[in-house]
Amino acid sequence: MARKEVLSLQINGTEREVFAPGDATLLTVLRDDLSLTAAKRGCNQGVCGACTVMVDDAPVRACLTLAGACAGRAVTTLEGLGSDPVMQALQEAMIVSGAVQCGFCTSGMLVTARDLLAQTPLPDDATIRAALSGNLCRCTGYTRIVEAVHSAAQALREVTP
Amino acid sequence: MSYVLNPATVEQAVQMLASHPGARPLSGGASLVAMKNARLIEPDCLVNLAGIAALRGIARQADGSLRIGGLSRHRDLAECALLAGDQAMIRQAAGVIANRVVRNMGTIGGAVGNADPAADYLPVLACAEARVELAGPGGTRHLTMPDYLLGWYETALQPGEFVAAVILPPAGPGPSVYRKLARTPGDYATVSVACARVGEGVRVAVGACGPAPLRSPVAEGALAGRLSDPAAVAAFGAALVDLSDPVDDVRGSADYRRRLIPRMVAAAIRDVTEG
Fold it and tell me: Do the domain assignments include residue B207?
């Protein structure tokens, strides 16, 4: 493990400094140094999607992003999206649809689904499944998660015609 | 000194790599950080290319060629309208790499540098007769794909060099297609085929069936003008099977891959000849 150094990051709109190994991933810093645990450490290989966060305006894998490469970039985790209307609609819909079982994949699903709805307000089934294909869920069989994204899209359409 | 170094220019990056022999160049991180997490590699430090403006952008050159900066993400290529005609297959290949989130991270420079034989860019770039631009202590050099790809995960990259860009020749009318057979969307290919129409003939490159994409200009010459002749197409497929050196792995046996090659090649040729 690399020597510890001071890493400056912009997390959820706030400048944060951490003293962490220089080769720490963004995921490690978020969870272990900043106690922002919405992003989960699943595979640590970029496959499972449980660690998905926003860097600037695009969702990325926090486990494949080095904290030291994030200087000057805006990191947004699920914790920073609590007042986002699209995120609120998705969270409501996930609860109503019963799309959460163990919950481990849920944070990553939400961040990915929010990015989808930001770009495609009324996606069809195939578009939702393709968008979420990089987020693995071992509980639900995905059907209720897809339903939840549909109903969130509908709910958002009703408030902003 | 920081573990992650952030050069602003290609020259600075080359200098940093030269002065730290244990350093690796970092692009999107999609493969390099995954390998580091798995402890397959333990670089002394990383030279982060992300801040180098000269490695960004996709632009038509004065001579009609297209320069794709190494930092171009898979997402950028999947959305790039400049990739048309006999190069549309590159856009198609970029759009089936992994998934949306990973396509926001991974770059063509990183993917070509890693040179996984089952990855999606290698066959389309070989089929498009692309050249790879390498930056390093000796300056910049350009290599064809056959000269660049030397073996299984082995490239002509020398220590301290990295992929700065991919250069495509002026596009032809095409059409072109990328066919990929994978266990599940976003996986590496079991077998993939890139095929571009060139007049009455085709250029074809097969991926994931050897250390580098399979291509036979001689067999392509014999097939020219006979794209609708099933016997000629079958002979062409057999010629590519003869060139193949597939492995047995979790995505399929070598024998299965050899059986897939002629079927997928024939399907790709149909794609670029019918309607």
Answer: yes
Residue B221 forms part of a structural domain: yes
CB contact under 8 A, A131 and B100: yes
CATH number of the domain that B222 lies in?
A: 3.30.390.50
B225 belongs to a structural domain: yes
- Interface test mutation site (partner A, options B76, B100, B114, B187, max chain A beta carbons within 10 A): B100
State whether B101 and A45 contact (CB < 8 Å). no
Domains in chain B, number: 1
Residue B215 forms part of a structural domain:
yes
**What Rg value do the Cα atoms of chain A yield, rounded?**
16
Question: CA A100 to CA A77: how far, in whole Å?
Answer: 19
Cα torsion B236, B219, B63, B194 to 10°: value is 20
For residue B77, the model assigns a pLDDT of 98
CATH 3.10.20.30 positions along chain A are 4-80
For residue B131, give the 3-state DSSP assignment: strand
Report the topology of domain A4-80.
Ubiquitin-like (UB roll) (3.10.20)
| Alpha helices per DSSP H over chain B | 10-19, 32-37, 74-78, 88-94, 100-103, 108-114, 121-127, 145-148, 217-223, 230-243, 254-273
**Numbered ranges of CATH 1.10.150.120 in chain A:** 82-159
**Angle, CA B47 vertex, CA A18 and CA B129 arms, to 5°:** 140
Q: Is pLDDT above 80 for A17?
A: yes
CA distance B231 to B247: 28
Per-residue tens of pLDDT for chain B, all 275 residues: 899 999 999 999 999 999 999 999 999 999 999 999 999 999 999 999 999 999 999 999 999 999 999 999 999 999 999 999 999 999 999 999 999 999 999 999 999 999 999 999 999 999 999 999 999 999 999 999 999 999 999 999 999 999 999 999 999 999 999 999 999 888 999 999 999 999 999 999 999 999 999 999 999 999 999 999 999 999 999 999 999 999 999 999 999 999 999 999 999 999 999 86
Name the fold adopted by A82-159: DNA polymerase; domain 1 (1.10.150)
Contact at CB, A59 and B101, closer than 8 angstroms? yes
Taking contacts as CB-CB distances below 8 angstroms, the residues of chain B near A46 are 30, 33-34, 98, 102, 105
Q: Which residues pair with A10 in a beta bridge?
A: A15, A74
**Residue A112 contacts B where some CB pair is shorter than 8 Å:** yes
